Amino acid sequence: MKKIHLLIAVSAAAVWASCTSKDSAQGDAAALTARRDSLAAVIAKAESELSEIDLQLAVLDSSAQWNTVTLLEAGSSQFQHDFNVYGTVKSDQSVTLLPESAGRIQRVLVRSGQKVSAGQVLIELDNSVIQSSLAEIKTQLDLAQTLFDKQKRLWDQGIGSEVQFLQAKTQLEGLQKRLTTTQKQAAMSSIRAPFAGSIDELFAKPGEYAAPGMPMARLISSGGLRLELDVPETYITRLKVGQKISLDFNSIGVKTSASISQVGDFINPDSRTFKVNVNLPSNGQFKPNMMASAQVVDYESTGVLTLPNRLILQDTKGASYTYVFVPAQKGLGKVERRELTLGVSNNDATEVRGGLKVGEQVIDRGIRSVQTGETVKSVNE
Question: pTM for the complete prediction?
């Protein structure tokens, strides 16, 4: 009988438990989560203490052999990125002179290397036919002017017809226009210097026949010189007018600095470059078509954390990281891996924008032979 009552009591308890289990499930889950977090914290603390004890035991173990590493303290400094490109000296005042009309070369009034002034006549073509036309037009113009003056006086007195007056005026104006046109044609037979400079090379020879498009002489001036650079398109947003660059004219052993005078807006579809011009001083050192190397600083930053490129590693997934030395005592410490967020790089170093703090000790020599959690010994070089 007691067994039956016991079974009834157990069954009742089971029924009650099943009725209340659903109501308490949410509360039990929260309690279990809190207990799990508490245990995780205890485990983490225990693991930390175990690590410290292992490290202390390692210090006391005089027979142990440790990998030795050297350390580099992470610090902030001034950082800059630059690149080198080559350019050619161009001149706005370096021209090849061509005749505007055809004709036999009558006189060459200059020689190679001679200094000339702006507007000076350099070469004259035979224009005897044009001069004859000019003389004829002037004679006709004198007669037309006389007839017009007489006709105008008569017209002013009310004598003569309007048609006669207009004919005389039209003839005079037509001859004046012919004279102006012929004079311009005569001027085209003379080749003049468009600016002051020197005759770099003379092609014309007396007696030869000249035609439009045929080179007669090359005139150059020391003014208007610029260095023209072809810069890769990746730098088009980093360069601006007025920016300083360093120039090296290796052929003449001259190093100097200058400012960017123009940044092109057109990308060459073949070379994927754009033009950058740098004005040069007119001091006689630089000549058209000279080559020069230009060092362009396109990025600068002050007080940023940097690391030498040799201390930045990459895993198989492409993530960048480095190893930090966490000191204990007597020169021993643990190796800790740090994932890095990187910025701009140059040939020597890279900006570190995350994952490392100023003052931390980064493993230098031996960085490629250590592993996370390994105990190593730091030494001085």
Answer: 0.55
Taking the CA atoms of the chain, what radius of gyration do you get in angstroms? 46
pLDDT in tens, 289-316: 899 999 998 888 888 899 999 999 999 9
CB contact at 8 A, 127 and 103: yes
Number of Cβ within a 10 Å radius of residue 284: 7
CATH T-level fold of 84-92+221-300: Elongation Factor Tu (Ef-tu); domain 3 (2.40.30)
Residue 98, pLDDT above cutoff 80: yes
Can you tell me the distance from the alpha carbon of 192 to that of 178, in angstroms, rounded to the nearest whole number?
A: 23
CB atoms within 10 A of CB 90: 16
State residue 380's pLDDT score. 80
Whole-number percent of the chain with pLDDT over 70: 88
Q: How many residues would you count in the chain?
A: 381
Residue 283 burial (CB count, 10 A): 10
Please tell me the predicted confidence (pLDDT) of residue 276. 95
Class of domain 67-79+302-378 (CATH, top level): mainly beta
Residue 139 is given by DSSP the state: H
Could you identify the residue written with the tokens 């050619």?
88
Name the residue type at position 270.
Answer: D
Nearest to 308 by CA among 47, 64, 55, 75: 75
What's the distance, CA 47 to chain centroid?
Answer: 53
How far is residue 335's CA from residue 321's CA, in Å, rounded to a whole number? Answer: 13
Segments making up each domain of the chain, as ranges? 33-63, 67-79+302-378, 84-92+221-300, 97-122+192-220, 127-188
The tokens describing 178, both together, are 């012919």
Structure tokens at 17: 């438990």
The CATH number of the structural domain formed by 97-122+192-220 is: 2.40.50.100
CB-based contacts of 176, cutoff 8 Å, min separation 6: 141
Report helix, strand or coil for 223. Answer: coil
Please state the separation of Cα 289 from the chain's center in Å: 21
Q: CA of 140: how far to CAs of 117, 163, 213, 215, 331, in Å?
A: 37, 20, 35, 37, 112
209-210/197-202 β-pairing: unpaired
